[in-house]
Amino acid sequence: MASAALHTITMRERLDALGPWFQNMCLDGEWTAPGHFLGDYPAVKFAGFAHALPDVTGLSVLDIGCNAGFYSFEMKRRGAAHVVGFDSEPLYTAQARFAADVLGLEVDIRDMGVFDVARLGERFDLVIFMGVLYHLRHPLLALDLIHEHVAKDMLLFQSLTRGVDRADPVDPDYDFFAPSPFDREDWPKLSFVEHRYAGDDSNWWIPNRAGVEAMLRSSGFRIAARPEAEVYLARREAKRPWGADPVYPARGDTR
After folding, report:
1. Sign of dihedral through CA atoms 7, 11, 14, 16?
2. Which DSSP category does 248 fall into?
3. What is the 8-class DSSP label of residue 200?
4. Could you tell me which residues are beta bridge partners of residue 127?
5. 84-95 pLDDT, tens per residue?
6. How far apart are CA 48 and CA 87, in angstroms?
7. What phi, psi does 85 have (nearest 5°)?
8. Domains detected in the chain
9. Model-level pTM?
10. pLDDT of residue 253
11. Order of strands across the sheet that contains 221-228
């Protein structure tokens, strides 16, 4: 009786079993998301602002909402000594752990969400917070918690934005009876998505450029550079506006 040939699981089959992938990376000769609707993403995005990043050699890096780990891996390749990436979606953390193993990169991947950053118990030289803000029901709280618990110095930030690409200065105060400034097209705004945006029911708030910049400042981050549309490099400052302290809603045990 002829013996059945043993089937060797190919890299393509492994990637497909872990799919779908949002981040496109080459693992052992195979691309994780070769048909991505944004092209070679996020590498094509990273190419637009990589030149503006500081030297991370020997630094600690936290990648919030790491997805499959693209930015965590890039920081490790650039010499970061300690890299932690986390995501609230188990599929993405499984992808990130698999990719780290294939690439031979030592990155600490964890399952958690941005509102639990206090659990980490450490501050990082660089915090990466890209592509997450507009997926949160409580975006300003996330920035407050990042400032309070994990940001030591630098914040690399990106959010989907819509509206005019302008952020003209606003007055420090407005009289109650003065003509309203709120109809200005460049007034800091967050547009609320009740249902879906781009077919995605995890999109909650879409800011304009002025809204992003105002939120960063109000959370204690000084904008140092805007190397690309939607991308900011900011520095943590100790002083924050009145009332900017984070809140900690109690959670019941639902187990």
Report:
1. negative
2. -
3. B
4. 62, 155
5. 999 999 999 999
6. 24
7. -125, 140
8. 57-166+181-236 (3.40.50.150)
9. 0.92
10. 55
11. 108-111, 82-87, 60-64, 124-130, 151-158, 231-236, 221-228
